[in-house]
Amino acid sequence: MPAIDLSLDRIRLLQAQLPPYTRPTCHIAGTNGKGSVSALLHSILRASGSSVPLTVGRFNSPHLVTIRDSIILNDAPVSPAAYNQARNHVENVDSSHGIGASNFELLTCTALYLFERARADVVVLEVGMGGRLDATNIVPDDCILASALTAVDLDHQAFLGTSISAIAREKASIARPGKPFVLGQQSHPEVEPVMREVVERIGGDVLIAPEVELRGWDESIDGPYPAATGEFVPPVPQPIEAHLSCFAEPLRALLPLHGAHQLANLSTALGVVSALLTHPSSTCLREHLHITPASIAQGIRNTTWTGRLSFRKVTLAPPSGLSCLVLADGAHNPASAHTLAAYLSPHLARTPAPAITFLLALSHSPPKRPHETLAPLLGLSIPRLAVALLPFSPPEKMPWVHPEPFAELRATVNELAPQAEVYEPDARAMPQAQLSEALTWAAQRQQREGGLIVVAGSLYLVGDFYRLLEGIQAAG
Fold this sequence. Notes:
- The strands form three sheets. Strands 4-3-2-5-1-6-7-8 form an eight-stranded mixed sheet, sandwiched between helices. Strands 12-13-17-14-15-16 form a six-stranded mixed sheet, sandwiched between helices. The chain has a three-stranded antiparallel sheet with strand order 9-10-11.
- It has two domains: about 290 residues, Mur-like, catalytic domain (UDP-N-acetylmuramoyl-L-alanine:D-glutamate ligase, 3-Layer(aba) Sandwich), CATH 3.40.1190; about 170 residues, Protein-Tyrosine Phosphatase, Chain A.
- It has 16 helices and 17 strands.
- Helix content is about 40%, strand content about 15%.
- The chain is an alpha/beta fold.
């Protein structure tokens, strides 16, 4: 029996004992891109208050560094004191009523409690897994401003179904009667008909996200073009153009999130923005909003989404003291691995005899196999390839999550890239120490051969990487 028991029964009982949730909410489902869409939408809303900035809440999962990262108010995670007070209250209510809510249900109720207490003007809520039976789907119909569906692909098949259609059905079931449902760009044609069937049965209104295209750099809008230096450097923001039916002129902005897939994610976010400006169900909110092309462009430009195609210049602690360039990306399933590979591929093509050092960990998540996720990355044309195989620290409040065994990872790497240099740190050490050891090895290799270090395969490993950086900065 799976360790995750998808049901709304427990959280309904728990939420009924807590203050009613009344915040206007945008609800985001999908396999890949949910977090990026929610980050973009959050930033746009923050830039779009009528006289003072809107109070905007955001809920994402899993967390990256600490569990508080899941709950954002305005521009930062909630404080430890606020989180602990709210979490303790929710846990006490759960215990006193004998409900036995899961950790994710407790976290979701904690987030809703904090957003309600802060009287957030708008909340952006990311689905945890699936949609129909996800804990976030407890939010009342009256609170939902718009729902959205990002790219659907195979993931979590043990819980959501083994086909794209089955997974799309689960995710589209966050639709609400009389409310807009924004369909983001999809790579599988079967998603749209399933989505339309589900949304129309529920009584929602389907909206197709607008097209977002790359455009040329315009110094009159974008400023001077940054000079390129070095073999691998963080790329400049992507200049984009989009046509929203609510504006007469095209929207032009700089998108700081890297990769072609972020155009699709921005498209979904702009679809939600368009729904907020045009759909009858959002009329009461519009007097508080001041969404203009300028505020949207500012919000897009201000967006950050840590751990997704994120470049970091790292100076390691003594005795090595080496500096290295690291790309951290939470690619953890075949679709997101293809996205990372597509991002790396043109950089490799421009570099003679390129070198890449992957620091990899994967979650053990059958029926998903390591081969499916690693094939896009290790199949790249990389003459000088090295791979470090790593575990990750047990995620806080997520006891069902475990890393893939080393033997399985090693066999997969040997099959896909027999020419690769493989590094395994001391397995007796704690995961954070193994990562530190592997990063030192990778930095030494980068110093000798150039190239790029890529931390990928699991958001939990990326979280370990950022915790390691915090430790280095605190010590230095």
